[in-house]
Amino acid sequence: MANQPMLKFVTVGRDMPEKRDAEARARDFQEIYAEYAEQKAEEQAGRCSQCGVPYCQSHCPLHNNIPDWLKLTAEGRLEEAYEVSQATNTFPEICGRICPQDRLCEGNCVIEQSGHGTVTIGAVEKYITDTAWEKGWVKPASPAQERPESVGIIGAGPGGLAAADMLRRAGVQVTVYDRYDRAGGLLTYGIPGFKLEKEVVVRRNTQLEEGGVTFRLNCEVGTDISFDQIREEHDAVIIATGVYKSRDLPGPGAGADGIVRAIDFLTASNRAVNFGDNVAEFASGELNAHGKRVVVIGGGDTAMDCVRTSIRQGAESVKCLYRRDRQNMPGSQREVANAEEEGVQFEWLTAPKGFKGDPVNAVVVQKMRLGQPDATGRQSPEIIEGSDYDEPADLVIKALGFEPEELPKLWGVDGLEVTRWGTVKAEFGSGATSLPGVYAVGDIVRGASLVVWAIRDGRDCASAVLEQLNGAAASVAAE
C-alpha cells in the first residue's frame, strides 16, 4: 500500500494552481492561474477516490473518462493520460480552462460531497494537454485513407471545429465557412484572454489546417455564398453558427450613445488587446472602458467577462447589476469571486428601469426582491415600488444573453424548420434537420449554452454524418 498513488484525499488537501495576485492580474490579459508542476499534478490527481460510479464522468457532457486519466497522471504516465483525455474530447486544453467545473465534474465529485474538497479536475486536464503540446504528442489528422465525400460546416466555433476534426480523421474532405477573419468563434473573439489565451485557440486552428481542413473565412452565408451553393458543393452540411443576436434592453433612453452590446465590447477588446488589430471603436473610446464609470447589466458568464475586461482596461469603477441574488445567478461562482477580488462591485437584486443622458450619464435602477418560484423553480424577482435611484455611468454594457438569428430568412432557405424560439429544429443525438443531408449542432440548436456541449454535439453529429456517408457509399457499391 506504500506505493498506492490514489485515494490520497484524506491525507492530501485540495490545492489549486497558484492564482496570480489580484492587483497584478487586473493590469493585463494573461491567464490568472499558473501551471501545476509535475509533482503537484501527480499529487492532486492522486486525491481521486476512483469511485465505482464516477459522478464526475456522468455529469460531464462529454462523459470524459476522468478517473482513468487522473490515475494515469498520478502514476506519471502522462502521454497515456493525454490519449485517454483526447479520446472523448477534441479540445481538452480549452475545456480545462473555461468549463464551469464547479457546476459539472468537480461540483459532483464524491469526495467533495464527503467534505474533503473536490479533486481539481479542470486544472489537471489543462496540465495534461499543455504538457502534450509541449512534448509534441498532439498530432494533426492523418487519415489512413482519403475519402471522396465532402462536408461543408457553417461556423468555426467549438461545435463546428469538433465535427471538422472528427470528419477529417476519418478521411472526409472538410470545408469550414465563417463570417469572421479568424476561426474559433466565441473562443477567439468572445472569451477574454485572461480565461483563454488566444495562442491556445490559434494553435488548434493551425493544427486543423495542417490536418487538411479548409477554412473559408470572411465568408458570410447569404451574402458571399448562398446556402444552396454550399449544399450543392458538399455531400452533407452542418450548421454550427452559434447564437449572436443580443437580447435587447427596454426602458426610456435605451438607445443612447454609451449603451453597448457585450459581444461588441468583448470582440473589440480581443481584437485590439490580444491580436493587435486596429479597431476604430476601441481607439475612439466607444468600446473601451478606460477612465469610465462602467455598469454591466446581467449575471451570466458573459457579464463576468465584461466586468473583468473593464477592470483591465482601466475603468474608474465597475458595477454589475443583477436582478436576483448571488445564490440565484447563472454565472460561475468562481468567476464572481475572481471579479470581486479584482475590484468589481456587485449590486444584487437590482434592475435597470431607464437611462439618463445622451451620451448616457446614469442608469435609473430599481430595487427588487425575490417572490414566488417561476416555472423553472427559481424565485421570480419583483419590483420594490419607490426604491429607484440613479447609478452614475459613462458606459453601460448589456450582457443579457443571446438569441438565434432568423437563419431561414437570412439565408433564403425554404424547408429549414425552426422552433418557436428561433433555434434550428434538429434530431437529438444526430443533429439531423428537416432538410436531407443538413445537420445542426451547438447553440443554434440548444440556445446559448456551454462550449463543452457544443463540442459534444459536434462529435455526435460527425458520427451521424459518417453513418450517412457510409450508407450512401454502400448503396453505390451495391448497384
TrEMBL record:
InterPro entries assigned to the protein according to its UniProt record, in alphabetical order: DPD_II, FAD/NAD-bd_sf, FAD/NAD-binding_dom, GltD-like, Helical_ferredxn
Enzyme Commission code(s) on record: 1.4.1.13
UniProtKB keywords: 4Fe-4S, Iron, Iron-sulfur, Metal-binding, Oxidoreductase
Molecular-function annotations in GO: 4 iron, 4 sulfur cluster binding; glutamate synthase (NADPH) activity; metal ion binding
Enzyme class: oxidoreductase
Pfam families reported in the protein's UniProt record: Fer4_20, Pyr_redox_2
Start and end residues of each Dihydroprymidine dehydrogenase domain: 25-136
Domain of life according to the entry: Bacteria
Domain FAD/NAD(P)-binding residues, every copy: 151-458
Protein name: Glutamate synthase [NADPH] small chain
Native source species: Roseivivax jejudonensis
Gene: gltD
